[in-house]
Specification:
Immunoglobulin-like, 4-stranded antiparallel sheet, 1 helix
Length: 164
């Protein structure tokens, strides 16, 4: 074997050896505000808090993943539809009464008012047209007004502010 072929073979071998010895390995990692990994009986569970939920399910390989720490990401299209866009709620902020105008072509709707802790303050079922909500007896603060179609369960939440 000529000298150039020997040097070439040795150089090529050292290059592959160097690549194998000094190559990077990337570990799965997540930067999150909370979470942990737990292993018991050959089962490993990783979870984090504060991540958007993305789902992946498998049967044969026993894969169940949620969030962005998964190895197999499935993108799902989300249809952006503005529900109840024609409903008017005024005045907001309000001191005493809130008017809710529902267009005539809407089905009968349920209206619920919640405080920021999720406690039910007021509920009216099967309303239509113009509705007046009395807020004189509730405390100053922020509330959430939910409009729900009881037939198809479509829901929209409006932020309502009670003022002095």
């Amino acid at each position: 074997m000529p000298m150039n072929k020997k040097l070439f073979t040795i150089a090529l071998g050292l290059m592959f050896l160097g690549t194998a010895l000094f190559s990077q390995t990337i570990q799965n990692s997540v930067i999150s505000n909370a979470g942990t990994t737990a292993t018991a009986g050959g089962v490993r569970i990783d979870y984090t808090l504060g991540e958007t939920v993305v789902e992946t399910f498998s049967a044969g390989g026993n894969t169940l993943t949620q969030g962005f720490h998964q190895t197999n990401l499935t993108i799902t299209a989300i249809e952006n539809v503005e529900l109840f866009a024609e409903i008017s709620i005024y005045p907001n902020p309000s001191k005493d009464f809130v008017n809710i105008d529902i267009p005539a072509d809407y089905d009968l709707l349920d209206i619920t008012l919640y405080d920021v802790l999720g406690s039910l303050i007021n509920k009216q079922t099967e309303v239509s047209g113009s509705v007046t909500l009395d807020v004189t007896n509730i405390s100053v603060g922020t509330y959430y007004l939910q409009v729900i179609n009881p037939i198809n369960r479509e829901l929209k939440t409006f932020k309502l502010v009670k003022s002095n």
